[in-house]
Amino acid sequence: MIKGIRHTGIVIDDLEKSLHFYQDLLGLKIIKQMREKSAYIDSVLALKGVEVTTIKMTAADGQMIELLKFYSHPQELIEKKICDIGPTHIAFTVDDLDRMYKELSTKGVLFSGLPCVSPDAYAKVVFCQAPEGTFIELVEVL
């Protein structure tokens, strides 16, 4: 049986830009970073000759994401749509969405629109995109 969600993996294209976004702009903390190249990682990923940097990062509540930068199996960056089949976004809870929206906007982060209050007035929500195109939902519980 599933005991919990361990982390969400995000394949990235530009390590420097992604670290700036997730660490410097969103405030996630790096807890482990390693460059991997072994028969074990080849077996786990069912690929040959894998060389990848993995970076585990946590939010203040301990929830974790893992950034993966593949050197051995580069892929073409494709435009993502919020309505694509499969995983489409990660949601983060924030304290002050209006402040965060203004701050991130001035730093070049692209948003899908302005922060909006949900119909039940439970939360204020806005979507933006990380450098690799992953949609990020920012939620302030009101």
Topology (elements, then pairings):
Elements lengths: L7 E4 L3 H11 L3 E8 L2 H7 L6 E7 L5 E7 L18 E5 L3 H10 L9 E2 L5 E7 L5 E7 L1
Parallel strand pairs: 1-4, 5-8
Antiparallel strand pairs: 2-3, 3-4, 6-7, 7-8
Overall geometry comes to globular
- The helix content is 10-25%
CATH A-level architecture of the largest domain: Roll
According to CATH, the homologous superfamily of the largest domain is 2,3-Dihydroxybiphenyl 1,2-Dioxygenase, domain 1
Largest sheet: 4 strands, mixed
Highest CATH level, the class of the largest domain: Alpha Beta
Oligomer: single chain
Termini separation: 34 Å
Q: Number of helical runs?
A: 3
Main structural class:
alpha/beta
Instruction: Compute the CA-based radius of gyration.
Output: 16 Å
Considering the chains and any ligands shown, give keywords for the structure:
142 residues, alpha/beta, 2,3-Dihydroxybiphenyl 1,2-Dioxygenase, domain 1, Signal recognition particle alu RNA binding heterodimer, srp9/1, 2 domains, 4-stranded mixed β-sheet, 20% helix
